[in-house]
Amino acid sequence: MTISTQITPVKWEDDVLVLLDQTRLPVETIYLHLTTAEEVWGAIRRLEVRGAPAIGMAAAYGLYLGIRDSEAQTYEQFWQELNRQADYLGTSRPTAVNLFWALDRIKARVEKEKDAALSIAELKAAVLNEALAIQAEDAEVCRTIGEHLLTLLQDGMGVLTHCNPGALATAAYGTATAPFYLAKERGWNLKVYADETRPVLQGARLTAYELQRAGIDVTLICDNMAAMVMAQGKVQAVVVGTDRVAANGDVANKIGTYGVAVLAKAHGIPFYVAAPLSSVDLATPTGADIPIEERPAEEITHGLGKQVAPDGIKVYNPAFDVTPAAYITAIVTETGIFKPEEIAKSKQ
Ligand code: MRU
Asked: Which residue, 65, 129, 290, 334, could crosslink 141 as a Cys pair with Cβ 3.0–4.6 Å?
């Protein structure tokens, strides 16, 4: 049995990028139809598409949209335009390395054709095909990560997750949620606890929504309830996604993840990170080198649709934090299960 209720957040249909607007979930299901790189940039910045792999996929299609009407006559002109568009899309959000990975992968594909004397139309087609390949591969990658993670879990376990590392953040299955979907396929009963994930509530609006929709046993908790739930013995494992894994095994993920990792260690609960290789960035030495996005104060002061803080209050709103490798039991990629300090082996 496969789970047919999964949602597809990113679609390429009739030469248009169709995005499920994740800012409107769970109340409204609205699809955005994007035809320019500028629209894709805005959708990424506004979190209409979000989650590291989905951001990468959207940026890849955005790059194609940015060059599809190019009037370049030579490879050199096309290459310059491609780089300009890639640099522009790269300014949409800083933390998820999948964005840069996808743009670099497309550039590498075009560079490979440098001496092949392809027409400009053929180069444009190569860009689109690479974007399509990135999306197609992501579904397989997530499923494989799920298979590996499932070997670390058991039927009947309680598993806590943070943010949305789900189908909504990927081509299918999600990364950290993949074992939940696979467990469901196998008739296991996992009990998932989803942190609501302040301030933007990806856990409440997205993870709770997609897992409930798929018939997975999911219980929503506020972020400040995780310690209690662990102390009560309801959770036997934590599985989260990531926006970037540094070479030393430090992991950036949605703000609050670090706190969950500290709690898990205090309660002797294993803490697993699901990371496609597109999120593993060996060029970034440590977590301290990962750029952390800061988002508008309104996400906190007006985060629940109404003003919840005084006018003019000072706000600090980092969108991500870094969990040091020492708090991570294992990082699970499509190539296997790795100790954080051995994450470089995942790419060998
Ligand atoms: O700000 P967001 O919603 O893009 O943050 C998303 C996360 O932090 C996810 O946990 C991460 O991208 C992993 S998605 C498989």
From this structure: 334
